[in-house]
Amino acid sequence: MGTRGLILGIESSCDETAAAVVERGARTLSSVVASQIATHARYGGVVPELASREHLRAIVPVVRAALAEANVTLADLDAIAVTSGPGLAGALLVGITYAKALAYANGLPLIAVNHLEGHIHAVLLNERETERGIENVNSQASNARPGPPGNDVNEKPALALVVSGGHTHLFLARPTASAWTYKLIGRTLDDAAGEAYDKVAKLLGLGYPGGPWIDALALHGNPHAVPFAFSQIKTKIHLAGKAPRTKGAKTAPIANLDPRFLFSFSGIKTAVLRYVELHNLRPEAESRREALFTGPDAPAHPTVEDALAQCDPQTLDLIASFQHAVVGDLMKKTFAAAESLGARRILATGGVAANRSLRARFTAEAARRNLHVAFPTLALSTDNAAMVATAAWPKLQAKEFADPGLSANPSLALGR
Ligand code: KG4
Ligand code: ZN
After folding, report:
1. pLDDT in the model for residue 380
2. What pTM was computed for the model?
């Protein structure tokens, strides 16, 4: 067992097999991500059976690469951390089983991490790495020693928006002496924001995952061309319709949440579909898909310029308007929640937080309201294992270890 506060993180909840070594929740020694995008792209979404198979293939080389890049051996580690949920059951199990075996064989403690908590800690890791960069410059000048990294106790509560392909959640995140605690403030009632991006991109004949395509193409359209609107969500009405298919554990928190902080993205997806039908844009979307991905002359690696050449102004306006509406809704509710809870700091994280428009609009709105907003680096926004190792650091200090019987929990909740 090591003494440097080194945690090996393992992540396999969806379509990325990742491993990373992070020192004291504050310094990334390595972060390796094997993406399965190529496997799932032709289906326009993640195929769970294929995901498990790909994780099985990738897990050993990815972990080896993470240790080698960090220049450490298993004997140098203090703990192994693994995502235990939420996510795809079979995919999660690959990471969990391997992490358990590795921990047991090497006499290391095993730490279970909630994937959503991981995304939140990606922002904290980035903040610490950036701050330490600044501190190191100062300490070189003054010979002062920087403080211990990853010391959360003085950090203030923050409102965290976790927005990805599987989640759109708002949490109030508070550091305590031993760990972070979370209170669920809002969430989506149906699709996640990233899911809406992926479905709209698929409908328009663009690639998978859809977010990066829409992000890039939206720059070329008029965001005010199509006035998409989000209506006020009424919890009781929604629950009346949804209760029979919603699990008890999930229904209760929704009923207790303030409807102002609930999201719903299935409506805008349908509105885009209606727009496409009404303006007869489907045949064009089909030929776009063929030209870019499925046709005999499709380029091996289509670029944004290739896609741009296949998009008429009306489609670009539709894309820009869709993005403007989604980002606007995320922004409105996140800032309203921060204001209502008195949180001065917003952490925006998850794949959709990589979006350029989201970053620009959140940053401008935070400046306007005199709040602080932080994002992970682009690489830490999407799924990775450095965030898992970082979230595990306070748990290692608190000796909060996983049960030997740890199993995958596909619908693991964070906070109450
Ligand atoms: O966090 P992540 O890698 O995996 C999940 O936990 O879901 O997020 C993936 C999601 C996908 O839906 C993808 O389309 C979206 O994040 N995404 C983006 C961008 N980059 C990835 N959405 C909007 N703009 C982006 N630049
Ligand atoms: Zn994720």
Report:
1. 97
2. 0.91
